[in-house]
Amino acid sequence: MSKKTKKKLDENFDTEESKEEAKEESEVEEASEDTKKTDDSQDKEEAAKETSVESEEAESEDKEDSSEDKKSSKKDKKNKAQEIIDELNDKVMRQMAEFENFRKRSDKEKTQMYDMGAKSILEKILPVVDNFERGLDAAADGDSFADGMKMIYKQLMTSLEEAGVKEIEAEGEEFNPDYHNAVMHVEDEELGENVVVEVLQKGYMYNDTVLRHAMVKVAN
Fold first, then answer.
1. Which of 16, 77, 120, 176 sits 20 to 30 Å CA-CA off 1?
2. pTM for the model
């Protein structure tokens, strides 16, 4: 083999080796780039996942805050509603108490007015009773007319008792200025001090009040 032919063959061999090496280097570079792209893609995916997790956490926190705000708002509304209810209940209770006091005052005033009217009428009837008693004391025994008047007098006194009128006990009792009106005084050693010895005019009570004091004679 000539030197020229050998040299040419060597050059061709070198060229093919260079091509092979260049091809291998190109494949390595492509593999490296693919690996790099894969790594970059994984990094992006991880970053996206982290961002998504952070976003979800933020949304969850926002929801919790919103829920707490709603609860707080509902609680405030409930408290205000309860305050209004308590205020209305207090007003109703006060009005009921005022109405009850008004009813009691009205009943008391009605009773007082009735008693005043009754006392006024009874005070005018008492002189008639006194005259009845004087006339009956002066009537003769066995007089049929006087007997009829006694029956009418008894009926009148029964009606007065049913209306709440009763005679004040005086003769033989200790003098009491709340019920008795002393117009005369006598000295009597046989009687005790301040004892009513005679009733000059009968006194009467109407329920628990004095309708007319008894006019009496008292021993000192």
1. 16
2. 0.55
In the chain, the percentage of residues whose pLDDT exceeds 70 is 68
All domains in the chain, ordered by first residue: 167-220 (2.30.22.10)
Hey, which of 31-40, 79-88, 156-165 has the most confident mean pLDDT? Answer: 156-165
Alpha-carbon gap, residue 73 to 87, rounded angstroms: 21
Q: Are 180 and 213 in contact (CB under 8 A)?
A: yes
What is the DSSP code (8-state) at residue 188?
A: -
Rounded CA-CA distance 141/63 in Å is 113
CB neighbour list of residue 167: distance below 8 Å, 6 or more residues apart? 202, 203, 204, 205
User: pLDDT tens, 151-191?
Assistant: 999 999 999 999 999 999 999 899 999 999 999 988 877 77
Tokens of 153: 């007098």
Distances (CA, A) of 196 to 82, 145, 165, 173, 212: 71, 34, 22, 6, 17
Q: Taking residues 191-212, what's their average pLDDT?
A: 90
The secondary structure of residue 180, as a DSSP letter, is: E
Which H or E element spans position 196?
strand 195-201
